[in-house]
Amino acid sequence: MEKDILNIYYKSVEYKINKRYPSLRYEVEQLELPPSLLQYDSYWRGLESIIHDLITRFDIPVEHCLEFGTEYGYSAVAFSNYFRKVTGVDTFDGDDHTGKHANNYEEMVQRLARWKNIKLVKSDYRDFIENNHQHYDLIHVDIIHTFSETYNCGLWAAEHSKCAIFHDTESYPEVKKACYQIACATNKLFYNYDKFFGLGIIV
Ligand SMILES: C[S@@+](CC[C@H](N)C(=O)[O-])C[C@H]1O[C@@H](n2cnc3c(N)ncnc32)[C@H](O)[C@@H]1O
Fold first, then answer.
1. Ligand 1 atom closest to the CA of 140, numbered from 1
2. Does residue 88's CB lie within 6 angstroms of at least one atom of ligand 1?
3. Are 182 and 158 in contact (CB under 8 A)?
4. What is d(CA 36, CA 101) in angstroms, rounded to the nearest whole number?
5. Whose CA is closest to 159, among 128, 121, 185, 126?
6. Could you tell me the distance, in angstroms and rounded to a whole number, from the CA of residue 71 to the centre of ligand 1?
7. Ligand 1: does its nearest atom lie under 6 Å from the Cβ of 171?
8. What is the chain's percent helix, strand, coil content, to nearest 5?
9. Which atom of ligand 1 is nearest the CA belonging to 143?
């Protein structure tokens, strides 16, 4: 009974969020599990199987993928199956949402050393994007899930890529709000994939 009431409440909140920040529904045509993956329980797990679908659907070149928010490397390794180069930018200190920890940049460089096409950069996204005019094929934003940080980082990402993707649109309404506003500001389309905590796609 209590569970039913909570479900009704969650559904109505979800309905209101989707009405306020509308998106196009992303339907996957073909799932493909990439061969090389890290085996740990990242919240990103599941999304590796739609990378190929995204690339073909939006005709994304596969030269260079940039990621803000690499943490222990799950998504970076997933992207490395498809892109010639992957650059992962992270402070490597954690944050208030994922949990703060001692800096583990050196350890992560060692752990990901066998993926030769992944380069890790220890930097706050703000320093990385300052005066940076480089363009990327795909940019993945998965930093702290506040509106302001996602909007600031994501606006730059949408303006410097063919396609920008944002994790946690379903678990953090602030991320969905940021995606909606970035799409409005850049005149791009906002698709949402509602599985695995949600993926906002701006093309
Ligand atoms: C949710 S985790 C990323 C998860 C990862 N994509 C995966 O595949 O499991 C968020 C990461 O964003 C990083 N982060 C948070 N704020 C940041 C900022 N301002 N600049 C760079 N990295 C940041 C944190 O250190 C943390 O490692």
1. 6
2. no
3. yes
4. 27
5. 185
6. 5
7. no
8. 35, 20, 40
9. 12
Per the CB < 8 A criterion, the answer to whether 179 and 202 are in contact is yes
What structural domains does the chain harbor?
2-202 (3.40.50.150)
- Tell me the pLDDT of the chain (203 aa) as tens digits: 777 766 766 667 666 677 789 999 999 999 999 999 999 999 999 999 999 999 999 999 999 999 999 999 999 999 999 999 999 999 999 999 999 999 999 999 999 999 999 999 999 999 999 999 999 999 999 999 999 999 999 999 999 999 999 999 999 999 999 999 999 999 999 999 999 999 999 99
* Centroid of ligand 1 to alpha carbon of 67 (angstroms): 9
Of 8, 4, 18, 33, which is closest to residue 177 (Cα–Cα)? Answer: 18
